[in-house]
Each structure stands twice: as C-alpha cells, then as structure tokens.
C-alpha cells in the first residue's frame, strides 16, 4: 500500500473483524489509530499487532464523545468507519428498542463521525454498508434499510465534504467474530450454503474487504461510489 505511505489513518471500529484487518494491512506503511468502545479489545488488538500506532476508546453512538475525540486530533488523511453492533430480524419480529439501537449504532455512528472528523483536502472518508441495501432479505429488512441510508448519506457527503472523497464498501457474508455467536457446526453450515449460492463460491475473509477499503481510500479519482465486495451476492 505505497500510496498510503506516511499517511494518517483513523479506523473507527478497528478492534476486530474488518476494521482490525484494515488497520493491520495499513500499519506497515501508515500511521494507524484504531478506535472502539472496548478498551480491553483495543489493548488486545495492539498487543497482537504492535505496528498499530495508537488506540482510543470512543463510543460512536455518543455524538459528544466523537466530537471531543476529533477536536484534539491532528487532521487525518483517511478515516474509515467499520464498527457497529446491530440486531437483525424481520420488521414484525424485531423489538423497537433493538431496531432503534441498530440504527443508532450503524447509521448515526457514521453520521457522528462525518460531522466531527477533520480530514485533509484530497483525503477520504470510507463507510462500510452491506449488500442488503440492494438485495433485501425478508429476515433482515432493517439492516437493508440502514445500509441503504448509509449509502445515501455517503453520496450526499461526497458533495458536501469535497475535496474530501467519500465512498462506501459493501460486503456480504464475511468470516468475522460476529459469527462466533453460532456454534462451529452451524457456522460452517451457513458458510457452506452461502458459498454454494454466490458466483465467487466462497465466504470473504476480512482481508479481502480491508484491501478494498484501502484501495478506495488511496485512489484520488473515486468519490461518491459504493464498491460491492460481495462475491456476487447481489447477483445471486
């Protein structure tokens, strides 16, 4: 990632999964900060990957905390928003409190970052949405709506924040710790079923999504775009 050499990159939601993979991939060339809610997870991530320069405990659902975090930081070259904790389920099966929490975490968390982050001209803000924005699932209607809202936010921000570039990466099933809530046999069944259905014939690993995030961040001619990294799930 030579295009990122010497750059300052803040990864919000960087303590695990896609965010951590992005941090690890970038930290060989760039100055990387990871942020998240759990100081224990952040400390463990940095202990395992000492090339990550810095960490900060920040709750993205807390607008004041996000504002205060960015207020004391130097400008960033690139900011990535990966982290969220969302409940899933059909509209008539998911509790309203859980639904509001999901929106607060994934959509409003990104919104808070967009309001507060300080990015150098020509730098970038990258959001992570998801394939349900264009391929709805009857059992994950809210997730699709949140992802679509994120992508709509991204396109508007690409105009508002220019010359800062704003984009979204849209993955599908990715082998991250979010799947650890399932026991191993059930997880493998779901992964095998997914891989058999999509054209790529495989479940994504976090590095595959991380490479797309950093490629979009480094490319000076990409803004206002959603890049599908979904193995063809949107086509299946």
Nutshell version of this structure?
This protein has helices at residues 17-26, 39-48, 63-71, 96-116, 141-160, 184-197, 206-218, and strands at residues 8-12, 31-36, 54-57, 76-81, 119-128, 165-171, 226-229.
Q: What does this 3D model show about the protein?
A:
By secondary structure, the chain is α/β, with parallel strands linked by helices. It has one domain (2-178, 207-227): 3-Layer(aba) Sandwich (Rossmann fold). Helices cover 41% and strands 18% of the residues. It contains seven helices and seven strands, in the order βαβαβαβαβαβααβ. A seven-stranded parallel beta sheet has the order 3-2-1-4-5-6-7, with helices on both faces. Strand 1, helix 1 and strand 2 (31-36) form a beta-alpha-beta unit. The model has no long low-confidence stretch (mean pLDDT 95).
Give the strand line-up of the largest sheet.
3-2-1-4-5-6-7
Q: Structural class, from secondary structure content?
A: alpha/beta
CATH architecture: 3-Layer(aba) Sandwich
CATH evolutionary superfamily: NAD(P)-binding Rossmann-like Domain
**Overall body shape:** globular
Supply the number of structural domains. Answer: 1
The CATH topology is given as Rossmann fold
Give a topology summary.
Elements: E1 8-12, H1 17-26, E2 31-36, H2 39-48, E3 54-57, H3 63-71, E4 76-81, H4 96-116, E5 119-128, H5 141-160, E6 165-171, H6 184-197, H7 206-218, E7 226-229
Parallel strand pairs: 1-2, 1-4, 2-3, 4-5, 5-6, 6-7
Helix pairs in contact: 1-7, 3-4, 4-5
């Amino acid at each position: 990632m030579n295009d990122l050499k010497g750059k300052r990159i803040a990864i919000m939601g960087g303590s695990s999964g896609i965010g951590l993979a992005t941090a690890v991939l970038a930290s060989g060339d760039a100055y990387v900060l990871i942020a998240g809610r759990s100081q224990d997870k952040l400390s463990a991530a940095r202990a395992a990957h000492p090339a990550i320069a810095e960490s900060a405990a920040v709750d993205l659902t807390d607008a004041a905390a996000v504002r205060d975090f960015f207020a004391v930081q130097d400008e960033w070259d690139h900011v990535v928003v990966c982290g969220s904790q969302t409940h899933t389920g059909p509209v008539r099966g998911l509790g309203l409190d859980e639904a509001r929490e999901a929106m607060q975490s994934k959509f409003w968390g990104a919104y808070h970052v967009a309001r507060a982050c300080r990015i150098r001209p020509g730098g970038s803000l990258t959001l992570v949405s998801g394939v349900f924005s264009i391929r709805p699932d009857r059992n994950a209607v809210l997730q699709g709506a949140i992802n679509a809202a994120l992508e709509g936010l991204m396109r508007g921000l690409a105009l508002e924040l220019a010359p800062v570039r704003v984009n979204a990466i849209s993955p599908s099933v990715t082998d991250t710790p979010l799947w650890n809530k399932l026991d191993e046999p059930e997880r493998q069944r779901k992964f095998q079923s997914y891989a058999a259905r999509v054209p790529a014939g495989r479940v994504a690993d976090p590095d595959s999504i991380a490479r797309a995030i950093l490629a979009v961040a480094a490319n000076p001619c990409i803004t206002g775009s959603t890049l599908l990294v979904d193995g063809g799930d949107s086509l299946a």
